[in-house]
Amino acid sequence: MAADLGKNATEDTTEGTPLKVHDLRPAPGANRRKVRKGRGEASKGKTAGRGTKGTKARGTVPVGFEGGQMPLIIRLPKLKGFKNPNRVEYQVVNLDKLAALYPEGGEVTADDLAARGAVRRGRPVKVLGTGEISVAVQVRVHAFSGAAKEKIAAAGGTTDEL
Predict the structure, then answer these.
(1) pLDDT tier at 8 (50, 70, 90 boundaries)?
(2) In Å, what is the CA distance from 12 to each residue of 5, 17, 24?
(3) pTM for the full predicted model
(4) How high is the pLDDT of residue 46?
(5) Distance between CA atoms of 159 and 153, rounded to whole angstroms?
(6) CA distance 35 to 90
């Protein structure tokens, strides 16, 4: 029966039995021992992948060491300050702009200012006190400067923060 299966088959191979994991073996010569470098002349010793001579062949060298030259990390300028990740970036509207947009007074909201093209939609709005306002406006936005609050109140208007 073994002669029918070919020259690679062995005597104990039986047809119809399923292949099992514990029967698997690597091909002859597939598994080789690890080369232990740097363990003496007899076992691939010599330079052990470090080239010949020099500091890097003999011991540890600090990362970034440039042979006594001023290292790159020290030559570069240091960062100044920091960027606050919690900073709120307001869109500003001055009182003179409000007076031009609302000559009769009325209610002012962030959405209404966006509809009139003074600010962009979806960002916080702050009213600043540059300019004068003479009409009573009821302003509801995210923030006000102190001068803006005083001038709106002097004109008979109200301020309300969202």
Answers:
(1) low
(2) 12, 11, 14
(3) 0.52
(4) 81
(5) 8
(6) 65
